[in-house]
Protein 1
Amino acid sequence: MPRLMRRLPLHFLLIAICLVWIMPTTGLLVSSFRPASAVATSGWWTAFQSPMDFTLENYEQVLSRRNMDISFLNSLMITIPATVLPIMLAAYAAFAFAWMRFPGRDVLFTLVVGLLIVPLQMTLVPLLKLFNALGISGTFLAIWLAHTGFGLPFAIYLLRNFFAQLPREMFEAASLDGASAFTLFYRLTLPTSMPAIASLAIFQFMWVWNDLLAALIFLGGRRAVAPMTVTISNLVSSQGEGWQLLTSAAFISMLLPLAIYFSMQRYFVNGILTGSIKG
Amino acid sequence: MLLERLIQIPVVVTTILLLVVGYLVVIERLLNRLPHHRQAKLRPWLWLTPALIFLSVFLLYPMLNTIYLSLLDAKSELFVGFENFTDIVSDATTRNALSNTLIWLVWFTSIVVLLGLLMTVLSEKVAYEHLIKMIMFLPMAISFVAAGVIWKFMFDYQPATRPQTGTLNAIWTSLIPNGEPQPWLINPLTNTPVLIFVAIWIFAGFCMVILSAGLKGIPSEIQESARIDGANEWQSFIYITLPLLSPTIAVVATTMLINALKAFDIVYVLTNGNYNTDVIATRMYKELFTAHDFGRASAIAVVLLLATLPIIAFNIRQYRQREANL
Amino acid sequence: MKGLVKLFQIVVFILIFPSLSSVSMLAQEDSDSVAAAGTKALEIVGGEAIGGSVSMLGVLGGAELDAFLNIFVPFEDATGIHVEYESTRDIAAVLQTRLEGGNPPDIASNPGVGQMIAYANEGRMIELSQFLPEDNLSNYDPVLLETVGADGKIFNIFTAVNLAGLIWYNPNTYTGPNPPQTWEELQAWATETAATGTTPWCIGLESGAASGWPGLNWINDLVMNQLDSESYNQWWRGELSWTSPEIRQAYEMLGEIALDPQMVESGSTAVLATNFLNGGDGIFAEPPSCYLHNQASFYGAIATGNFPDLVPIEDINFFAFPSIDPAYANVRQVSGEVMGMFNDTPQSRALIQYFASTEAQTLMAETGIWLSASRAIPIEAYPSPFTQRAAEILSNAQTVYYNASGLMPQEMNAAFLSSILEYIQAPETLDTILTNLDSVREAAYR
């Protein structure tokens, strides 16, 4: 009992912050099951007073929307390669930055960090020109390449920091045993950095999954290639009618990233490192 | 078309994996044929090559192009020197945007990093850690299109005579006696803080995920051994956890500083910079897509670039220190 | 945790499955007008399907996009040309980037008319008069066509037209002059009503990134009703100073309503903070908290969306903005989108020709959402009571203007938009606001 009493402020603080954090999303969730006219004229918290007026209409309309099915697959087609590619390339680069010695290493690395600031808007026109010259604008290849480029600085920055924190002794021991760079990378570095790689993967996945601008510029909103963000933003008319559909659409498009987050949960929890190596 | 896509996806992903792993296998094979000292010299560059190609084409080249354009006129035809820079500095709107960005830098970064750290460390101590993490992570998964709707529900304003539909005003009017509904996004006293709060709401989960990945990397034995030596929770946090976590904190802080500098979507969606909420990135967007002034837009982008120099310098110093300590 | 993952997989599957299996079908009326449009389309391509596709960039979404695309169904069926509509809310940025990057859409249907006029002036668009037949063009108001062109040549045609400057009311509660003969008469009634304690007007300007736009229509109404057409055209061309008395007076007249808590529901704060979708809600409240709401022809759909029980004409109706100066009576403003061409292909030529035809414009009228800019479309073609009445007002107009803010260069338009919000928030700074608009004018029309 005293322990619980002593920890009461801790629980109170955590729960209070969580309540604040979940409230906006709860409002959206409740609203997604209400008819538009009710949402426009009364607050979402009044939904549970009688007369209760709930409907699946918003979900039905979004799911039955033309092209929602193909755009879901298009989103996957865009997002998976655009997540795998930058993370793998960043891991190579980060490994080199963290564990190899070469002249100009620090300068090059700070340049990579500096590239984080480049505003996306300033890259659009030069890149579109390039893609046109290569004849790949409007193709999935263009958007994979673009997202890889945009995602790399943060990925390299994050992974290099995590790689560099791995115990030096571990690498020295393995090197003495004759392990190659390839083995050090795939057998030691990657498995022990899973929490960082998993975090990175989920972020990159979500950024690409939720991206609208790059898709519109490099891919275009053509039905054959349009991702879900494009199809969803087209649910609403130019005068704003149909905005209530965005409530249900938000949850539908959130399901996959959340499912991935859950399925990666165990990687977030343990680096294999924890407990296995003595500090 | 659906079936075609369903087949394409695994094929594409497998191809990419094969290409990327295959690259490493091939270069390592080739390297192994070389004498040892040549290997050590060449290896880092070959590991870096794919990333460097992408970075040069997709970011470095557009950045250099931007610097070049910042010295040309609106239509990128005539060389005007530093005129764009003197223009934006003397322009009251841009100066106002600069000072707002400064507010973002200070408040957004400090609050979001501290909150992320606090939640990471505290949630370790309770059984419902996963639940907390998921709740904090949730906002990141919501697209900006939907976030616009969410915040409409939060900040909505109705005249006092009508029932409030915005959560914040409903709470406000019921908690404060005779409380008038507030136009949160319009009142210059509340709008920038409110926008910053939205950003914190989105990015706190990001900080938390990365910080806790860093925390998981600290062997628990170290903390336990400190405890055995008689340190209390607070002391072991300050003297053991915090120093070991500091590289990760630096990564998070740097990323958030850059996010604050680049803050755009939230302002664009909720106020479009009206009522004194403009920030550097919304100014740049307006110069680019409303005024069609490539020179000025590029100059603003260059100012952003310059603003990151201190952040980068801080990072370099950090590395040097850590290297020296090893 | 494993269980949760499974659960999620199941949920995802259930949600995805129905949409995978649903076959998309366009509801297609087999009416005479559809058949006529098909025949026309086939005639345009020379009697034989030519195939291919046209990419079109626009801003429409949801039900209105479906209605818009329905206009092209007979065209697609007859010609084999596939219309690929790409929609974005941020068309200014996307169109500019795609154009700069060398990858423009074949056709853009753009509400940012100023942007399209600028592209026409820069020679980046295809001149339409070189292939649009003369007898077809004569269906359109020549002055309006020239307004959205360049150098007296035609580069854009009108699509998705709305009539602005309509004053909406609830026939069950509104007791004022109907229709009022003059602005003075209406405002006299409004002042009287205000004195009894009920606010006569309601205004809602909030609209996210586009906040303030209903105010543009207000100012436009107030300006065009007090200005000769020569000066009106000078205004949007940047040849009239914003500090000139006519413009200043329009702001002040809007202020007399929007800044006075007795004239407008809940005063200026509510004007700024109320979303335009809820702007007229007070008319239908019980008891009404206001009686009059100035909004374009699409407001009927918004109101009946918020209050599904409203019966058109019986519970919600409108009259046209009354005249202020008898010298310029019966002037009307339209807004909407214009359609122009960036890539000259046989397919996009065919599409523009088809769209400008009376047959396609009849289908436009039949959407019940927009008006047609073509004067050849009879009032009876409009199925909705709202669009029919609006079309009637438009056809009886003495002078039809295109909304001035839409014609201004984007930079001027954006500054004009902000000026409305600034004025409502701090009316005492009107001098500064107008002077600032003048300095933007100098830069924007270079």
Note: The CA atoms of residues 96 and 216 of chain A lie 35 Å apart.
Protein 2
Amino acid sequence: MNSKSEIFRGKLAKYLLLAVLLLLALFPVYWMFVSSFRQNSDLTRLPPKFLPFDVGASLENYGRILANPRYLTYYQNSLIVAFGTVAVCLVVAVMAGYVLSRYNFPGKILLQTGILSVQMFPLVAILISLFTFYSDMKLTNTYQGLILADTSIALPFSIWFMKSFFDTIPNSLDEAATIDGCGRLRTLFQIIVPLSRPGLLAVGIYTFLLSWDDFIFSLTLMSKDELRTLPVGIANSFAGELLFDWSGMMTISVVASVPVLLLFIFLQRYMIAGLTQGSVKG
Amino acid sequence: MNNLQAERIRPTQKSFALSKTAKDRIFVAVMLSPALVILVLVIGAPIVKGIWMSFFEYTLAMRTNPQWNNFENYTKLIKTGEIFTYFLNTLLFVAFVVAIQAVIAMTVALLLNSKMRGRSIYRSLFLIPWTIPSVVVALLWMWLLQPQYGVLNYLLSRVGLVEQGTQWTQHPSLAMVSIIIAAVWRQFPMMMVMFLAGLQSVPLELAEAAAIDGANRRQIFRHVTIPCMRAVLDTTIIIAIINNFQMFTIIYNMTAGGPVDKTTTLSIAAYVKAFSQFDFGSGSAIGVMWLVVLGGGIYLYNRFSAKSHDIY
């Protein structure tokens, strides 16, 4: 029979397993932060000091990294591209998602499947010919070009997410608005969009993360150093001569992770909604 | 006279006024056009041009004058056998990353799905790796696995699993292991959240009924939980497979495909062909073969999984 000690043992095993997995998940992040507060001379000494204040911690690395104007430029570029992508993607996805949710027309199913299957096309292969188009149209080394490319990657999921979000808003609202003499566009932007804030936030965050994380588009479409985004900027500066500056590398890593961590802390609910919506409802 | 004019005007007015359906159609077309224009310009047209380019000698020098080269981009890749290496590396990477993360994600999801205090806090903590940008993930794991001073290398060598000073990212077989570890670490949280949402959609009554009928926990998991969240499992795993076929950032920054092509996946190979060797034709040919194989695989998977749905 299930004795009390047996249940206790089961619980203990469960929490032990949970603790081990949690340690594996979080230790690398912990180590990134710890390394960013230490000097290279302390990091290259064995055995490593595991506790945060075993060796002197200082903000010196942050001063050193943030005083370098290159990183501020990369940071600024990343922010411009990410916010630009979010803006374009939201407007386009709301428009497309709304008509896919409210209207029927021939070829709708085919169109929806087509939009979604775009995601499985080999990105690198697309990039090769996209690069030739961009060169011809003088779109390389422009923010617009990179924003357009990032948008196209975020769009399929965003459209589909907005469509399923609009599906949850009753159509009777649209009908009431029409009877009151509201045009189609006004119905969308004055009645439906204000009710869709959670959906817009989820799509906005998803798009921001995708653009912030983008490496390959920025690597190939931006060749001028002053236009590079943070991921490529970091990779370039630590691939070569600075390979042994581990504390600097971890410092800029923390700096690059902070916007996403902040988003996560404050807007977790919407991020998780964006993540799960897809597989669970679809 | 007046009547006659009025009669004349009415029909013309009617033919100019659009029916409601026609207005709807125009509205739909206008609203969809920005999305379609972007997708066609940035994805559709490049795919078509990529297929076209793959049949030509299309190098940086010959950009204005590409030459039909009688399938040489394809035959070269097959004759040298390199395409098989790329496929094999990609399949190894994708299979291990998806399988390992599925097991870890399911374990964590099952642990978090039971009654416990502070469940949402645990879920948040587990999600943190997913917030770290991919480039940072690559650098961070290079630091953890750094031969002389890497913490993980130090710990593993103390336990006796590896020798102190092991060059993970330059070792013929450990290079693959290191990119798999980094990718799993970044991705499993997302899968865990999906699985958790799927588990929570399994009706409790079903599991209870099975328990009353004498099923043990393993049987309930195998015959109730898994079939109930089959749709979630399928979607999540297909998405993970597609995403890992695309994986570039972590591999490129940790091993760049090395040592000697040991971690050169299709995406790395296509990139190197096009942007390091400036052979756009061969790069595109890799992309075309990749598209065909992945598309075929997903088609087969869908048919296979549609059949297995019928069994339940």
Note: Confidence is low (pLDDT under 50) at residues 4-14 of chain B.
